[in-house]
Amino acid sequence: MAGKAILIICDGLGDRQIKGKTPLQMARRPNMNALASKGITGIMHTIAPGVIPGSDTAHLALLSYDPHTYYQGRGVYEALGAGLELEDGDIAFRCNFATVNDRMVVTDRRAGRISGVGAELAKGLNGQKVDSTEIVFKATTEHRGVLVLRGEGLSRNVSDVDPHEANMSVMKSKPLDGTMEAKRTAFVLNRFTELSHEVLKDNPINIEREKKGKPPADIVLARGSGAYSRLDSLQEKYGVRSACVAGGALYKGVAKAVGMDIIDVEGATGTADTNLAAKVAIVKSALSEYDIIFLHIKATDNFSHDGDVKGKVKMIEKIDKAIGPLLKTEAYIILSGDHSTPCALKNHSADPLPIAVYGEGVRVDDVRRFDEISCMKGGLGHIGGLDVMPLMLSFIGKTKIFGS
Amino acid sequence: MAGKAILIICDGLGDRQIKGKTPLQMARRPNMNALASKGITGIMHTIAPGVIPGSDTAHLALLSYDPHTYYQGRGVYEALGAGLELEDGDIAFRCNFATVNDRMVVTDRRAGRISGVGAELAKGLNGQKVDSTEIVFKATTEHRGVLVLRGEGLSRNVSDVDPHEANMSVMKSKPLDGTMEAKRTAFVLNRFTELSHEVLKDNPINIEREKKGKPPADIVLARGSGAYSRLDSLQEKYGVRSACVAGGALYKGVAKAVGMDIIDVEGATGTADTNLAAKVAIVKSALSEYDIIFLHIKATDNFSHDGDVKGKVKMIEKIDKAIGPLLKTEAYIILSGDHSTPCALKNHSADPLPIAVYGEGVRVDDVRRFDEISCMKGGLGHIGGLDVMPLMLSFIGKTKIFGS
Hints:
By secondary structure, the first copy, chain A, is an alpha/beta fold.
C-alpha cells in the first residue's frame, strides 16, 4: 500500500526532563522506537521556536495551513467538530451551560456537569432570531455546546461572555474594534445570553434539578469567537483524499475546516479510556480509500494538564502498543505531537517535539529511540509544523516538481 | 589565491539507500571525503523540505535567486544557454524537430534524432514574421532547438504545441489566462508551427531523408514557455566576477540569466563521456580572473534517470578523481548537488543533499565522509539552497557587514 501516509499526533506529547528523563524516555515504547530505528527522526517546532502553540493553531500548521494566515478562531473548529455546517461569515463560539444566581453571578461554570439533557435544553435556543441574526445552537457533550450567529454584518472581534471563573458576574460582550460589525455582534451575543437565561430558567429539567438540590443549567456562556470562511481543501491544494480519526471535537473541526473526511469511531472519547484499538482498526481499513489519514490521540495532553507523569507514561505505553498494527501496513507513518505540555507546567509550552518518519525509501539515520532528546540528533534536523505535510506528500508521490 | 570560490554541483547527486547504502556511500571518493574531513558539512534543501526541485529552479536558488520570485520558465534558460541574446518581454520555448504524417500526428518526436542538419533546416525558419511578431529560431544539438517570439504584447501563459508523446496529434497552443497577450501568443505559436511544417516539408534535406527511408524533420514542436526579463546580475548584487563551466545548455542558460560569464569547454557534453579533466583545468586557470566559478557536472543525473546505480557510482568515482586538482588550489570549494534523483524513482525527489564547504578558516566538524547520511550530523546543520551563495560570499570576503 505504498503511496499512503498515516499522521499520528499524540496531543501534548512533548515534555521536559523530570529527574533526567522525559515521560517518553520513561515509557516502554518498542513500536515508537522501531519507527525511529527504521526511519528518519528530527525535532519539530509546530509553529516556530519560542511560540507556544494552541491545539487549534498547531493542527492547522501540521495540516499545512499557516495559522498566521488561516486561523479563524477556536469557535469555528468547535462548531465544525460538533457537526454543524457553517457558511461564510458565520460567527461561532464554544459554550457552556452554567448556573447563575439572581444577580447574574456564575455559581457553577458547568451547571454541575449536566449530562444527557443538553439536547433537550437546546431546543428552546436553537432557531431563535435576534433582529435579523439567526441563532444556531447545538449542545454537544455534558455541559458543552456551540453557538453560531448567522447573518449579514457580523464580526469575530468581540469579547467573551463567559467570565472563565466561578463567582464572577456574567460578562457583557464588548466590541474589540470600532466597526459597526463588532458592535452589532456584541449586541446580538449579549441579547442571546439574556435570552438563554429567560428560556432556560423555567425549563422543566431545571425545575426538576433545583428540586433535587442540583445546580440548574440556566444560562449559556459563550467564549472563543471565530469567523468561518471556506478554505481551499487538501483535495483542492494537493489532490489528496484525506480523513481524520479523532475523539475530540476540536480536532475533527480543524480537519473538517481543511476538507478532510471525518470518520467517527464508536468509543473514541478523547480521554484515557478511548477505544484506541478501534481507532487503529478504522485507520487500517480506511487506507484503501484515502491517501492521508490523520490519527489524533488526546489523552497524553489530559495527563499533562493534570501534572500526572505516571498517567502520561502509561498512556504513551498504551498508544505504543495500539499503533503496532499500523507498522505492518505499507503506509508511511509520521509520528509526533501537536505541542509539548510539560507535566511540570500543566500547560502548553514552546518546547519542540520529536518526530519520526518511516516508510519505503526514507533515508535511515542512526537514531534508535523516539523521544525529545534522542531525536535532537536525527537526520531530519529541525523542521517546522508546516513542513510536515509537504514531506508526507513528497513521500507518497503527490508532489509536483517545481520548475522542470 | 584566497578569496576565490568554486561551486561544484553534481546534477541529481542525492539518492536513497539501496540495501542500506546510497550510491555516494558505495563510491570510492577520497577527494570528496577529504572535503568533508577538512571542511564543514551539512544537509541542503535546495528549495524547501518536501519541495521537488526542477533543474532550473534548483540552480536559481543555488545562485541566490529565489525561484518563487525569479523563475521565468524553462524556455528562457534554454534560449540563453543556446547563446541567444534575449530582450525584455521575449517569449522563449524549447523545441524539437519532429516528424508528422499528413494528419498532423507525430510519428517521431525527434525526427530520427537528426544530427548535423539543424542549422541548415533552421535557415528557413529564423527571421520570419507572424503579423508584427519576430521569429528567432536556432537549432542546437541533434534534433533540438530554441524558439523566441519577439514583439509587443506577448505572454508566457500558453500551452505547449508538443504533445510530449509519439502517435499523438500536434497540439494547438491555448492561452492559459484570459489576457489578450496570451491569446495573441498562442495564435502566433500555432501559426509558427504550421509555418514550420510548410517550410520544412519541402526542404531538400528532408526529401533526401525520405528517399533513404528516414523520418523527415518536417515540423518544429515547442514546449516549456518562458518570459525573459533582465535580472540584476551577481556582479550588481554582490560585486563579484563569476563564471560558469558546464556542458548542458540549461545550466549555462541559468548562469547567463544571473549575469555569469559562460566559459565554453571543448568536449563538455553534459553526458558521461564529458571531458571532465578539461573542465577542471579551465576552472583552475579561470580562478585568476573570477571570484566565483560554478562547475556543473550533469551525468550523475543521467544515470539516476536510467535507474543505473552502478553507472551512477562509477560517475561519482570519476568526478571524485577529476576534482582532485581543485583541492590543491587555495580556492574555497563548495560541493553539493542541485536535487536528489533516486535511482529507485528514476526521477527528481524532495530528498535533500549533502553539502561540504572547504577552505581557509572554515570551522571543521567531525564528519569524515561526504554522503547523504554522514552529512546529517554536519556542523552546517540544515540549510537552504538560497543560503549557499551568502555562505560563499562571506568566506571569500565579499559580504558587507549588516549594521555596524
